[in-house]
Amino acid sequence: MLNRIVLISILSTIFFTAHSAVEADSLASKWKKDFNTGINLNQSSFSDNWKGGGTNTFAIGWFLNHSAKVINKNWRLNSDLNLQVGFLQNRTQSLRKNVDRIFYEFKAGYRISPKWDFYGSTNFSSQFFQGFEYGKKNTAGEPVDSLVSNIFAPAYLTSSMGFEYHPDKSFYTRIGVGSLRQTFVFDERISRAGLYGLEKPGDNIRNQFVFQYLMNVEKDIFQNINMKARYSALIDYFRMGYSNGIVHRLDANFTMKVNKYVSTNLQAVLFRDYDQDPNWQFSQILSMGVLYRLAD
């Protein structure tokens, strides 16, 4: 609980300090803000004699997104906050997470031409709750749940400087020639296991000097259907040329609005980080729920 309070305090401080600093600048325009939050529910139940097969399930999820932008003669400023958490329970298993994400990014881009900016950015990512690898067996051959992640274990802080290209309003790409990626593992049980690329068991922080490449697309592909896709690659300068020196992540999100308050959302993540697992990691969630939005 203390870690979560500290996390919320850090995010709030970064968020409001960044906004206050820019709003005090006489060159800045008014922030254009977009806030939406909602709850997704899914439930199914079957009688004990249901011959079609099936298991009683219940899933609930919550999300909050906030973005703010300033675009004027000299600056392109962007603030993005994304919070998600969801749980799933069926009749034969305990309550489990099916989504858990904390992400915040602030970027300031100074225009050097109509389509090119020199930018600096900082982003932070972690999770709210413990994560387990289910179904592992101990030395006695009994199935156990193994703790593999927690809040601030890991957490990633990436600071980057470089150039950003804007050919149009729906697409941009970044080339971060000078970037620092910091990995934090503040749960001693996890740090002692030597996970997430820590140099030795018991370490809490790892620093990497990396090259960052990022592409972002956001556009309405059909009426009432919005697509957001973000791909990033982080290349460790000291492991350049080796496949295990690249971290890939692709986030894709499709939002289909039924009406003003109801929407369907398809979210997919494709991820590869050799310091976590040599294989690709994939998650996909389809949900429908109630949406509340404020924009100006």
Describe this structure as you would to a colleague.
With 296 residues, the protein is mainly beta. It has one domain: Outer membrane phospholipase (ompla), Chain C. The protein has helices at 2-23, 188-191; strands spanning 32-44, 57-71, 75-90, 96-111, 116-126, 131-137, 143-149, 155-168, 171-184, 205-222, 225-236, 246-257, 262-273, 277-295. A twelve-stranded antiparallel barrel has the order 1-2-3-4-5-8-9-10-11-12-13-14. A two-stranded antiparallel sheet has the order 6-7. Strand 6 and strand 7 (143-149) form a beta hairpin. The longest helix is centred in the N-terminal third of the chain and has 22 residues, at 2-23. It is flat, with a radius of gyration of 21 Å. Mean pLDDT is 88; it is low at 21-28.
Summarize the structure.
By secondary structure, the protein is mainly beta. It is 9% helix and 63% strand. The protein is flat, with a radius of gyration of 21 Å.
Helix-strand category: mainly beta
Q: Give the overall silhouette.
A: flat
Task: Tell me which CATH architecture applies here.
Answer: Beta Barrel
Number of helices: 2
**Largest beta-sheet characterization:** 12 strands, antiparallel, barrel
| CATH structural class | Mainly Beta
Strand content: over 45%
- Reading the helices and strands in chain order gives HEEEEEEEEEHEEEEE
Strands side by side in the biggest sheet: 1-2-3-4-5-8-9-10-11-12-13-14
Secondary structure: helix percent: under 10%
Determine the mean pLDDT.
88
**Strands, total number:** 14
The CATH topology is given as Outer membrane phospholipase (ompla), Chain C
Radius of gyration equals 21 Å
Kindly report how far apart the N and C termini lie: 34 Å
Number of domains: 1
Uncertain runs with pLDDT below 50, 5 residues or more? Answer: 21-28
